[in-house]
Amino acid sequence: MKQNKFFLAIAALALILAPVACKKKASGADASVAGAESSAQVQDLPAPDVYVLGTKGDGQGRELPTLWKNGVEQSLGLGADASVNSIFVSGNDVYMAGNVRVPGPENDGAGKLLLTLWKNGVAQHYGNGGSGSNANSVFVSGKDVYVAGHESNAKGNKLATLWKNGAAQRLSNESNDAAAFSVFVEGSDVYVAGGETELTEFGNLAAKLWKNGVAKPYSDGSHNVWARSVFVSGANVYVAGYEAVNVDGEMGIAATLWVNGKAKRLGLGNGISNAEAHYVFVAGNDVYVAGCEDNPQGNSMAILWKNSAAQSLNNGGGKAEANSVFVYGGDVYVAGYESNAQGNKMATLWKNNTPQRLSDGKTNTAAYYVFVADTTK
Fold first, then answer.
1. Segment 219-260, tens digit of pLDDT
2. Going by C-beta distance under 8 Å and a sequence separation of 6 or more, which residues neighbour residue 66?
């Protein structure tokens, strides 16, 4: 997470719409997801199923979508032409969202990029197959399945889009580039976090929260701001992300948590030490944010903020990131990775700050998403 990564992000619009490099939840009726567990519930909960989604190198420079269930790697049957970004478990059904590239003459020979929802391994394709298509987040509420992402229009602009049971709802302006990164459903309200480039002098990315399709800006477009994750608990709406900052002429990135639209810095970017917030989860009165922050040696540290207090999950000897957090039965699960002495990423699941290695470190492997499922439902 260095300065050059930040400036490349500004220069290339693709980063606005791609998965995080420093490196999503059930309706309020599902207490295990919404974070409304009582102390009695915590004591009586059985052992859950823990799903971790990530990527694994094949030794030939390609990264393959990978799923671990209770620490055991599962066969997805997907190759390097697929990307899986989010997972949600509802009852006996496992939903995953991402995309699949289909070879063909489209998009100047690159083929079609199909937004894809997998239900128990069976693929359903959404969208028009444009070059900029991607499904970033999936959420299930009752019988309804919501997918947030983006796809390209005829002009090549990327459009933030929400699909409900396969029907698309445009969230952004057809003339701007935009993306939807996270979706959360609370009762009859649907919240989507993302961003849209503003038609200003600099064309910066403005963070936005859409509630039932109506946009609320979280920044004014004067600088780049990323809204990556949304979680709703009671009357409070939490959004995690990060923003560009200028400190004494040095550009950096600051981890930020918005509560009902009010921003609070979690990590201060100072041009040398940058920080990013990737995911937010609320359990009871506690607010957890997974992300990363540079240490004085310039290594990215995996960080978990609990009620704004930072906890380092690794020792800082190599690059590490925390990408997702989930709380169940009083236990805190964090998905991410640490680098070994050879510089390879090792997919890691931290449970209450204790790491569990999901890979052997021979190839680059990373964990980006964790979902903990109640086995009684």
1. 888 888 999 999 999 999 999 999 998 877 778 899 999 999
2. 53, 54, 55, 56, 73, 76, 347, 365
- Domain hosting residue 69, numbered range: 3-373
Burial of 173 from C-beta contacts in 10 A (0-12 / 13-18 / 19+): middle
Q: Say how far apart CA 245 and CA 222 lie, in whole Å.
A: 11
CB 371 within 8 A of CB 97: no
d(CA 271, CA 16): 20
42 backbone dihedrals φ, ψ, rounded to 5°:
-60, -40
Both tokens of residue 260? 């009902």
Angstrom distances, CA of residue 104 to CA of 109, 277, 328: 6, 37, 44
Cα dihedral across residues 8, 9, 10, 15: positive or negative: positive
Name the amino acid, one letter, at 103: P
Supply the pTM of this predicted model.
0.88
The answer to whether residues 124 and 117 touch, using CB atoms and an 8 Å cutoff, is yes
Is 261 exposed, middle or buried, given 0-12, 13-18 or 19+ CB atoms closer than 10 A? exposed
Q: What pLDDT band is residue 148 in, cutting at 50, 70 and 90?
A: very high
Measure the CA angle with vertex 49, ends 44 and 54; round to 5°.
Answer: 145
Alpha carbon distance 123, 99 (integer Å)? 10
CATH number at 148 reads: 2.130.10
**Which element (helix H / strand E) includes 8?**
helix 3-11
Token reading at 223: 């600088």
Q: Structural domain tally of the chain?
A: 1
Would you say 328 and 376 are in contact if contact means Cβ atoms under 8 Å apart? no
Listed in sequence order, the residues at least 6 apart from 312 whose beta carbon sits closer than 8 Å to its beta carbon are: 301, 302, 303
